[in-house]
């Protein structure tokens, strides 16, 4: 119904025309009539801001597909952990590539979702509440992984990266071209730089970014011993490319999103809509099942 303008703007524009047309009837009469539309506009705006951003089924479905791939990967990991199958997740090209595909899919959707949230007019309170929720889940993952793998626990995994990348990427959601260029630079820098950039003598030959408390940056000369490692470099660059992709889809390829939404099954969009919940519970469930049936 409000094709050319957002509903709030369309209402304000229509009411401004009415005010002009009624202005000839007298100042007091115009003032009384003008009060009602202004009040209505404020109420409408408040109701719009209080609602959560509208979801797009295609984005939920694509995120749901990433969830499915993640479940397959973790199922194989758990079967290997219980010695039911034998797989080398740290060196075999298939498993390394499959993991990179899963992480890239999630982080691309993070970038797209940031654009959708900004276009929907998400409030700062709602944005930071979501960041706090994901951050709390990231902390739970660290604690839980320490209990299961004390020597290789997760200090900076996918959820940690999502939190930091969302905060860093939020100022760029209105600048998709800048996000694209910066994203390419970040990916290239993170993938290519693997040398001892800083090697002060007091570190006894240890590269500066190899220090444990700087693992999250991603400029290490070797991969740290951890079950999940998604550093800012290069993975923040994928989020930035997701921001650019989201802007491009909304501006020029919105029909592609509609087609994906119509073709996606409901269960897949449900998985994407509740991706954080599924992420947090799927591993305990699968490990519990294996412990019951395999011991």
Describe the fold and architecture.
The protein is built from eleven helices and no strands. The protein has helices at 7-22, 27-50, 57-81, 93-119, 124-148, 158-169, 176-192, 232-252, 254-263, 266-273, 275-294. The protein is globular. Helix 3 crosses helix 10 and helix 8 crosses helix 9. The longest helix has 27 residues, at 93-119. The chain is mainly α and 295 residues long.
Keywords:
295 residues, mainly alpha, 11 helices, globular, disordered N terminus
Write a concise synopsis of the structure shown.
The protein has 295 residues and is mainly alpha-helical.
Radius of gyration: 24 Å
* Rough outline: globular
- Estimate the strand proportion: under 5%
The number of helical segments is 11
Query: What summary fits the major beta sheet?
Result: none
How far apart the termini lie comes to 60 Å
Kindly state the mean pLDDT as a whole number? 81
Order of helices and strands: HHHHHHHHHHH
The secondary structure category is mainly alpha
Number of strands: 0
Low-confidence stretches: 1-50
Share of helical residues: 55-70%
């Amino acid at each position: 119904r409000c094709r050319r303008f957002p509903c709030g703007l369309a209402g304000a524009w229509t009411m401004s025309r009415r005010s002009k047309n009624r202005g000839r009837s007298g100042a007091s009469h115009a003032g009384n009539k003008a009060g009602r539309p202004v009040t209505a506009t404020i109420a409408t705006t408040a109701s719009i801001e209080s609602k959560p951003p509208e979801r797009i089924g295609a984005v939920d479905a694509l995120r749901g597909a990433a969830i499915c791939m993640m479940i397959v990967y973790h199922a194989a990991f758990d079967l290997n952990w219980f010695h039911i199958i034998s797989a080398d997740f740290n060196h075999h090209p298939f498993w390394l590539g499959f993991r990179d595909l899963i992480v890239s899919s999630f982080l691309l959707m993070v970038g797209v979702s940031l654009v959708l949230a900004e276009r929907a007019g998400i409030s700062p309170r709602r944005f930071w509440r979501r960041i706090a929720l994901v951050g709390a889940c990231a902390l739970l993952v660290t604690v839980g992984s320490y209990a299961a793998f004390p020597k290789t626990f997760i200090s900076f995994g996918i959820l940690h990266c999502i939190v930091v990348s969302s905060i860093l990427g939020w100022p760029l959601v209105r600048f998709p071209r800048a996000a694209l260029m910066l994203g390419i630079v970040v990916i290239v820098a993170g993938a290519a730089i693997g040398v001892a950039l800083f090697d002060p003598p007091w570190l006894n030959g240890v590269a500066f970014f190899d220090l444990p408390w700087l693992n999250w940056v991603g400029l290490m000369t070797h991969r740290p011993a951890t079950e999940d490692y998604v550093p800012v470099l290069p993975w923040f660059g994928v989020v930035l490319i997701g921001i650019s992709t989201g802007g491009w889809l909304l501006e020029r390829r919105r029909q592609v999103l509609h087609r994906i939404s119509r073709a996606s099954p409901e269960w897949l969009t449900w998985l994407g809509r509740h991706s954080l919940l599924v992420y947090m519970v799927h591993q305990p469930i699968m490990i519990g099942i294996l412990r019951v049936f395999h011991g």
